[in-house]
Amino acid sequence: PPGRYEAEAAPAVCQGTIDTNHAGFSGTGFCNGTNAAGAYAQFTVNASAAGTATLGIRFANGASAARAANLVVNGSTVGTVSFEVTGAWTTWVTKTVTVPLNAGGNTIRLDPTAADGLPNVDYLDVSVGAA
Ligand code: GCU
Ligand code: CA
To answer: Which residues form the CBM6 domain (predicted)?
Structure first.
């Protein structure tokens, strides 16, 4: 759909590997971030107008504890996200958050704050306005 940004598709950045070993992902793979604080996934998204955007972050967390990340938009931390456990690496869920976007290009970075790193990240859906 319009407004979907796959984690494996440039100019997205995955500080880790693009993997395909856990079924249920969209596109051709997902971002398996290195298990380390600061090993981020970043998306570059386009907004037709400035305003509050709703993000849908699709992820899987088959580990036994939630994983935390800063939500960084255009270089500024605008919030934090806790990616809850999903029960299996093949169980993908979508988490919704809102962020401010500029008109035009914006970088959205999920920047993990603990040594476990990010969950596996599949894609980012972005919608402006209709939240
Ligand atoms: C497992 C899993 C990976 C995941 C990793 C993690 O190795 O297969 O897909 O990224 O755990 O704990 O982050
Ligand atoms: Ca990982």
So the answer is: 3-127
Q: Cβ(42) to ligand 1 under 6 A? A: no
Q: Is 48 helix (H, G, I), strand (E, B) or coil?
A: coil
| H/E stretch holding 54 | strand 51-60
- Write the ipTM: 0.99
- Return the CATH number at 19: 2.60.120.260
Looking from the CA of residue 22, the nearest atom of ligand 1 is 9
Q: How many domains does the chain have?
A: 1
CB of residue 35 inside a 6 A radius of ligand 1: yes
pLDDT tens for 102-120 read 999 999 999 999 999 999 9
